[in-house]
Amino acid sequence: MGKLKRSTAIKASQKKSSKTKLSVEELLDHAEDFLDQYELEKAFQYAKKALDLDPKNPHALDTMASIQMEMGNVESAKSIYEKLVELSPNEGFSKYMCLAQLSTGIEAVNFYKKGVDLMLAEFNKQQLEDQNKPSTSKKSQEEDEEEDDSGRVTKLDISTAYCSISELYLTDLCMEDDAENLCKFYLDKSLEFDDKNPETLQLLASYWLSKDDLDQAKKFILDSLENWLPKYLEACEGGPLVDPSQVISLSYDSRINTARILTEVEEYEKALTVLEQLVEEDDEVIYVWYMLGWVNFCKGEDYLTNSKYYLKKADEMIAKIKFEQRYLDDALKSHVKELLEKLANVASDDEEAEGDKENLNEDDAEYETDEDEELEEDSDKNSKLTKDSLKNKNDENNNVEESMEVT
């Protein structure tokens, strides 16, 4: 018995020892697995152990920054990325892309530009390596661009980075000197690397909207839509094992903007198609319900019932919301109220159903009244006949009695 206990103790000791001897990479594998499962506390603990073993390990720092981002600790994440820049300023473009997204204004532009420079250097290196490979092992450009997991820099990556710079000059930096020309310059650079990039084409639509050119805006937003919506809808029909959002490059917010631009250029049906898919993906975004109501309102009288339904849904959610949502501001709330006031006399689907029910009850009541009248008439007739019969019978009895008396 004692020997068995000793054996168990040794095994437990070995197991404990093996846990403490996990390498940095093994710890990071565990951290990334927990991060994928969104178990952030466990991911944090493993990443922290890795950093305790190797405080300057780029992989460990990058993993910890991702965890901090998911936990909402933006400043902590930014400081880690800045440390990565200090450790290797001329290697690895991704940290600059992340820093750009966590920054604003000119600082963000500078991070993007540095990131793009490193991306271009890596891309040119890849091109040179491909040229030096034996012709039998060369891969087509299309195959290269499809290798998302290989770590290769693609033309789409570079195009998207230029598009991000352009967007800053269209939004945050729109008041800067020469902002319009810089915006267009980086849009053209983006198209130079990928002329079918949906984000770039959509931003071009926004650019032309800012110049009040609805025709050009419509052209580019429809071009953008053509490059992602068909494959997205196809994925939506692929069943529960397919995540439609994974087959396109546009984020949820970008697709909301797609619907807004489509509405401005009066492509209402296409706007509704995009919005309906957004609701399927996440039905708790108030702005999407509002947009569904607004687009139906814009479509005209035949769609006001739909408009009222969606706006009522948005209004109910606004009343219940306990946390901050993007796009949800006082202007939106006021517009929802204003539209619902205009639609006060429009019967929504549930009100029409209730009205139909009441009409049906009224018809039934009228029908029953007619039957009652007929029954009453029949009853009166029967009552009269019964009375007449009884009277006749009494008369007969009286005659018999009189005849008997005479006899």
TrEMBL record:
SMART domains: TPR (SM00028). Keywords: TPR repeat. Residues 127-152, 345-407 are annotated as: Disordered. Residues 348-379, 398-407 have a biased composition (Acidic residues). InterPro entries: TPR-like_helical_dom_sf, TPR_rpt. One of its GO terms (cellular component) is membrane. The keyword Isomerase does not apply. TPR repeats lie at residues 24-57, 58-91. Coiled coil: none annotated. Residues 380-396 have a biased composition (Basic and acidic residues). GO terms for biological process: determination of ventral identity. This is Assembly chaperone of rpl4. It comes from Brachionus calyciflorus.
